[in-house]
Amino acid sequence: MDAVTRDAITVFDLASFGGDYAQLGVALGRAARDRGFFCVTNHGIDAALIAHVFEQSARFFSQDSADKSTLSIKHTGNNRGYVALGEERLDALSPGDVKEAFNIGWDLAADHREVLAGKPFRGVNVWPSAGSFPDFRSTMLAYFDACHQLGTQLHRALAHDLGVAENFFDDKLDQPLATLRLLHYPPRPDRFEPGQIGAGEHTDYGNITLLATDDAGGLEVRTRDGQWMSPPGIPGALICNIGDCLMRWTNDVYVSTPHRVVNPVGRERYSVAFFLDPNPDAVVECLPSCMGADKPAKYSVTTGAAYLKERLDATYSHRENA
Asked: Is the pLDDT of residue 6 over 50?
């Protein structure tokens, strides 16, 4: 099994594990405890699909602001749609982030029972005009499905490390509150407001994040001793990190890692993040293997939807008016 450490973040060749989730779990568990970030290569997601996602993303963000704003998250609700420059603030103590985004969730029809029932975060996706973007929807949903499958496989491996059944997470992630997020960071301006950057320091909310990025750089990860470092740039690799929801499930056996994005100088930055959050009704509580008489559960029991709402309420000032 191949695992190479580059810049203190381990790179795993998933194909070298041959589908052995137990061995992969040992390796991923070590990385989850240590840095909270790792990279995966030979992950099974087609390179041509990833390239097409980036092409479609760049075309979408190149539109006029007025066109993009017709799909604004302010109006669409359920954490879907377009997020304009400065509209999101990941670091509550800093100005708005210098980035724009487009969110795609679990794809549900308008007459789906959970949509009709008004369940939190269970809405329909919004899409740019099929006339102008004929391949956008099919490309994004294909990539969403590929990331969902990979994320589920990584959870099967982590289940071994956490001492639960390999399929423990399967029925908690089969209709997830996952978000596929297209991101665009404009070049660094001559002058930022004090404390302002592309994406403020934060930890991710869900279980695990799968990030594809271009070669512009800008992602910075805070090490356990408080230093900032950049993950290695490996063509075709996905950068993965543990999120806060999985940290709760594991009682801080796995700890999410703060990170941020600094806008590159002289060029744009594009990335595509897949945030795998559990099903809305999935009960998130301390795993028995992660607690004991000398290590009681640190967090109260919650659900996937309740926890996501708690985190997003702090990120979007407009959510209370949605």
From this structure: no
Q: Tokens for 45?
A: 């997601």
**CB proximity list for 215: less than 8 A, separation 6 or greater:** 233, 235
3-class secondary structure, 280: coil
Give the C-alpha separation, 287 to 12, whole Å. Answer: 26
Question: How confident is the model over 251-265, as pLDDT tens digits?
Answer: 999 999 999 999 888
Q: Residue 261 burial (CB < 10 Å; 0-12/13-18/19+)?
A: buried
Query: Which architecture does CATH list for 3-321?
Result: Sandwich (2.60)
Q: CA-to-CA distance for 238 and 187, rounded, in angstroms?
A: 23
Are the C-beta atoms of 97 and 139 separated by less than 8 Å? Answer: no
Q: DSSP letter for 292, please.
A: B
- Average confidence score pLDDT of the chain: 91
In the structure encoding, which two tokens stand for residue 247, read together?
């940290």
CA end-to-end span of the chain, whole Å? 48
Which residue has 């592309």 as its token pair?
A: 198
Q: How many C-beta neighbours within 10 Å does residue 93 have?
A: 8
Q: Are 81 and 97 in contact (CB under 8 A)?
A: no
Instruction: Say which DSSP state 171 is in.
Output: G
Helix-strand-coil percent breakdown of the chain, rounded to 5?
A: 30, 20, 50
pTM for the whole thing? 0.93
